[in-house]
Amino acid sequence: MNEVTHAKFGMGASVLRKEDNAFITGKGQYTDDKYAENVLHGYVLRSPMAHARFKINDTSDANNVPGVHVVLTAADVSELNPIPCLIPLKQPDGSMSSNRDIPILCDNIVRHVGDAIAFIVADSVAIARDAAEMIDVDFEMLPAVVDTVAALDDGSPDVYSDGDKNLAFTHFMGDREKTDELFKSADQVTELTIVNNRVISNYMETRACQASWDEGKNRYDVTVGSQGVFGMRRALAGVMGVDVETLHVMTPDVGGGFGTKVFCYREYPLCLFAAKKLGRPVKWTSDRGEHFVSDAQGRDNVVTARMAMDKDGKFLAMDVDLIAAMGAYLHSFGPFIPYLGITMTTGLYDIETMAVRIRGSYTNTVPTDAYRGAGRPEAAYLLERLVDKCAFELGLSPDEIRRRNLIKPEQLPYTTPGGRMYDTGEYQAHMELCMERADWSGFEDRLSAAKEAGKIRGIGMGAYIEACAFAGSEPAFIELNTDGTVDLKIGTQSNGQGHATAYTQLAAEKLGLDYEKIQLRQGDTDELENGGGTGGSRSIPLGGVSVSRASEQLAEKIKTIAAEELEASAADIELEDGEARIVGTDRVISFADIAAAAKDPDELKGEGEFKQAEATYPNGTHICEVEIDPETGVVEIIKYTVVDDFGVTLNPVLLEGQVHGGIAQSIGQVLTERVVYDDEGQLLTASFMDYNVPKADAVPGFDFETRNVPSTTNALGIKGAGEAGTIGATPAVMNAVIDALRREYGITEIDMPVTPSRLWEAIQGK
User: Fold this and answer.
1) Total tally of structural domains belonging to the chain
2) 80 within some domain
3) Which end of the chain is more exposed for a tag (fewer CB within 10 A), N or C?
4) Cβ atoms < 10 Å from Cβ of 335
5) CB 706 within 8 A of CB 619
């Protein structure tokens, strides 16, 4: 890491995470750890078929099971609204895409395995599960379609009987006329079709919810794992048809979110509805099997892209045709994910124009939505695969073709064909530093040694840029307590990123206070008026600036009170170790005594809000080196090198951890993870027996470095880092695998995941 000058707990300090002691000693408090008095338990009866008409003949046997309190079907919850898609897309004809909202419980037809049919509430989960098996349901199986592209074919089964042949929407971005002109005049055109495989967001903590109804207060209390209680409250209010003030939403510790816990799911309003109906708290906790068939899944698109170039390999234009699987319904942000990706189509490269068409397809599968990176990993993977193929067809090295096309510092600020405005960066510089650290020039020697050992070896790079910390704000509120400690309130939500450490570092720097004496308060709609939640790497770039400003305001108020008590000028007061001191003297007053001396509670409060007008643009280069055993098809990552530009580093330890985690998830997508449905829509990868997340031995050590150029759109120069690892890693790992296959066997294309069996078959074919 780069050496920086910093305060003990302030910006740039490698402070260890203050929240980890509770987590590693089993003292974390997650949603499932919460047990209200007299709580009942819910269980969802789910469809075993991907597409079927059904009829519930009788629920009396289930209702009569001792310990069962209610069995709810679609008719019973008809007053609840479906869960809507929040971001439809504008189509080329000017119309907005039509929504296929998610019913709380299905009525007469199911559209994917795991679709919800009934909700049983009982004294225990075991009783509820047993009762579910006694519900008499008749199914009439219907044809299913699961293939992203085939769903749009004329002969494919219909997910919906009305509508435009499984076409969820069409969206266009770019300049078709100019793009076509440049392709006609191009000296070289390279084309590539790739599959971005569907993955499952296997966070450590499965989803859970506990709800109760307070008749006296006329409101619901709900505890739920989320990525922001205020967004969850708005979504629940919409489904329940009530004002947001009717809902008190709380989120305790969260064991991973990755975008997938942003959303409202069916079980949450079902718990609320049942709690009010029964007058008792109702709790539901997903098991891992349910997670595989109920929680929004990620990626799943098929793309054909063409690059137009001149004779020297200068990129002129891109033409992209993308089909994105939406699943059986349009999920909350579903259409927005591929849209967000195509805004980053041209990446770090100076490309004059582009034309991109997106089509969304309905399939009889679990709906797709945001998964770490949300569209930007898909865009970077496509582009960097295509750039490598361009280099190969032109006889250029991967680094040389990038040098000829990377946006230069003197071109910044730079507006892309996708409408993104890059403010700062030195893209070639971080690529060359990454190459140096990876010993790119020494690869041929390592290749020879690998061949002698009977292995094939490859090296690949992925240069990326992403948009995150989008325009907006995240206010922060801070207050000095009577015991000299400080409470910090903010509307983001930690899902394991280390917010309690990062935010308190910023506060500690301004207040001269040990960060252990600063308590982060989050996840409670009663404590703030609003909050933007966590997603899109926004928490530290937006919330961090607000925390810094709120802390600075409180520090000035503390100095003012201290000056009055010490009979000095506020300008002569310094804050250190929880005390205010007259500079150069031993005259001090503690924060506790300052709190006692305040005449008005507002004198002990600080507020800060930073409003950002433009996104930030982290960028970097990943280089991966692999060895493949041709006898088994097993890939081993030998060396992994990263040089990132995150603008400014708040905490090097937290930052590196975020990058490591993101890379591990991309390694999983490239090497092991893939959701597989059979032709009837049955999920074949429905457990960890069949769905292979990366194990510790698949993840290498990382050589991580930053080469930061501060952002000009963010007040602290921070660019954001939570998703970056997933964006650069996927193309870097895959390009390394293809490099090895091309050198030895002439294989230039293969799709993720490159499992041992898939690689072995490809090698045997040569």
Assistant:
1) 1
2) no
3) C
4) 26
5) no
